[in-house]
Amino acid sequence: MRQPRINVENKEALFEALVQENQETESDYAQCPCGRLIRSPREYGIFLFNIREHEINILCPNEGCHLGELGRIRFTTKGRSWSVEEASFNSFFVFWNSDRLGEERTKALLESHLKSVINGIDWLSVMDRLEISR
Ligand SMILES: [Zn+2]
């Protein structure tokens, strides 16, 4: 059996497709101004910073990051239930990504990151921490 011939034209098309794929992947990432790419919302550090104020901080996954906090979530509790009052990323983080990805893409990307972060929080253990500190 003869091997199918690979012509140059196809190779170039393949290469172009690969390059495009890489660019698309890159735009799926958020980035901290420290340079750290955040490929998945699971990478953020989550820190129950201020128990009294019911505030959770969203931290850069780079432990050596000089910025540290990239956003925060404020919540209220009633008995064993909770609701998120406000969740946002800090403006420097939003602007940094807008410069890289454009405003619209950044908005969609960071909104989905915020949702995932909120859904990924172990709220029951947060409740436990609140009760212990009471
Ligand atoms: Zn950072």
**Oligomerization category of the chains in this entry:** single chain
Terminal Cα span:
77 Å
Please tally the β strands and state the result.
6
Distinct bound molecules: zinc ion
| Overall tally of domains | 1
* Spatial strand sequence of the major β-sheet: 3-4-5-6
Strand-and-helix sequence, N→C?
HEEEEEEHHH
Write down the overall mean pLDDT. 85
What Rg, in angstroms, do the CA atoms define?
A: 21 Å
Shape: elongated
Helix content: 40-55%
Q: Mind describing the biggest β-sheet?
A: 4 strands, antiparallel
Number of helical segments with 4 or more residues: 4
- Determine the strand fraction and express it as a percent band: 25-35%
Structural class: alpha+beta
Low-confidence stretches: none
What's the quick description here?
With about 130 residues, this protein is an alpha+beta fold. The chain has helices at about 10-25, 90-100, 105-120, 125-134, and strands spanning about 30, 35-40, 45-50, 55-60, 70-80, 80-90.
What would you say this structure looks like, in words?
There is one protein chain. This protein has 134 residues and is an alpha+beta fold. It has one domain (31-133). The protein is 44% helix and 25% strand. The protein is built from four helices and six strands, in the order αββββββααα. The chain has helices at residues 8-26, 91-101, 103-120, 123-133, and strands spanning 30-31, 37-38, 45-50, 55-59, 69-78, 81-89. The protein has a four-stranded antiparallel beta sheet with strand order 3-4-5-6. Strands 1-2 form a two-stranded antiparallel sheet. Helix 2 crosses helix 3 (103-120). The termini are far apart. The mean pLDDT is 85. The structure holds zinc ion (ZN). Zinc ion binds next to loops.
